[in-house]
Design brief:
256 residues, alpha/beta, Rossmann fold, 7-stranded mixed β-sheet, two-stranded parallel sheet
Length: 256
C-alpha cells in the first residue's frame, strides 16, 4: 500500500514516485488509495488519522484476503500525511505488515485533528518489523528535529541505540543501516535535496529521484500538468531514487 500526502491523489503520487508501475513490474499488487474529496475537516483531500487510518487498514486486510496475498510480503509506504499513516498502520497491525517505509513524516508531527502519539514513544509495535525511514534536512513541514527524535526512539525500541554511524555517505545524503540480514532491519536516510518551482517553499519535503532515473524537475512538472491539470509534482532531483530503494528493501525484508 502506497499512501499519498495531503492535497494529493493516487495519480499525483504515482507521477511523483512511479511506485505503481515499478511494483507491478516486480509482480506486486500495489494499492494507492485517494483521500476523500468531501472531507469536512480539511479544505482539500487529506487523511484524518482517527477517521481514515482504520479504513486504510481494513482495506489492506480485505485485499490480502480476497487476492490470497503472500502474507510474508505485505508492506506499507507513504509520503507526508501518507508517511504518518505508514507509521500508524505499522503500530496498529504489525501482525499484518512485514515492513514499512515512511517518507517526510516522523510520526511525531502534529498536523491537525487526530494526530497524536505513535507507539515508538513507548515500546514500539507489538512485533518488531523492518523500517526504511527517509527524511529531508530542509523539510519545512516535517521538522528535522522531530525526525531525529523518532530515529532515536526507533533505535531504542529495536535495541539499535549504539548504531548511529552512517554506513553510506554520498553526495547529498547519509544512510545508516542497523540490524542483521534476514532479521529486523532499520534504514534511516537524511537527504539535503529540495523541491523547485511552485513547491519550493516546502524545501526538502519531497521524493528523491536520481539522475540515473533521468530526473528532470521541469519535465516532471510538465507531465503532471498535462495529465492531471495540476502544477504540483513532489519529486526532487538527488543521488538516489526513493521508490527504487524502498521496493528493493521490501523484497529483502519479508515476514519471517
Amino acid at each position: 500500500m502506497d499512501i499519498h500526502g495531503g492535497g494529493m491523489s493516487a495519480d499525483i503520487e504515482e507521477l511523483s514516485s512511479g511506485v505503481r508501475s515499478k511494483g507491478n513490474a516486480r509482480g506486486l499488487i500495489v494499492i494507492q488509495p485517494s483521500a476523500p474529496l468531501d472531507n469536512h475537516e480539511a479544505p482539500s483531500p487529506a487523511w484524518i488519522p482517527t477517521s481514515h487510518h482504520p479504513v486504510l487498514l481494513g482495506f489492506l486486510r480485505h485485499v490480502v484476503d480476497v487476492f490470497h496475498v503472500d502474507t510474508k510480503r505485505v508492506h506499507v509506504m507513504g509520503y507526508s500525511q501518507g508517511g504518518f499513516a505508514t507509521w500508524h498502520l505499522l503500530c496498529m497491525a504489525p501482525d499484518l505488515i512485514c515492513s514499512a517505509a515512511p517518507l517526510e513524516a516522523s510520526g511525531l508531527d502534529d498536523w491537525g485533528h487526530g494526530y497524536g502519539k505513535n507507539c515508538f514513544e513507548e515500546n514500539g509495535p507489538a512485533v518488531s518489523r523492518s523500517i526504511f525511514y527517509t527524511t529531508g534536512t530542509t523539510d519545512m513541514l516535517a521538522e528535522i528535529g522531530l525526525a531525529r527524535r523518532q530515529d532515536r526512539l526507533v533505535r531504542r525500541a529495536y535495541g539499535f541505540a549504539g548504531q548511529a554511524t552512517p554506513t553510506v555517505s554520498a553526495h547529498g545524503y547519509r544512510e545508516t543501516v542497523s540490524g542483521a540480514s534476514g532479521r529486523v532491519r532499520y534504514v534511516y536516510i537524511e537527504h539535503d535535496y529540495n523541491l523547485n518551482g511552485m513547491m519550493a517553499q516546502l524545501g526538502g519535503h519531497c521524493m528523491p529521484t536520481s539522475m540515473e532515473s533521468n530526473c528532470n524537475t521541469t519535465k516532471l512538472l510538465e507531465n503532471t500538468t498535462k495529465l492531471l491539470n495540476s502544477p504540483f509534482n513532489y519529486g526532487c532531483c538527488g543521488d538516489f531514487t526513493w521508490s527504487d530503494k524502498v521496493l528493493e528493501f521490501f523484497e529483502n525484508n519479508q515476514c519471517s
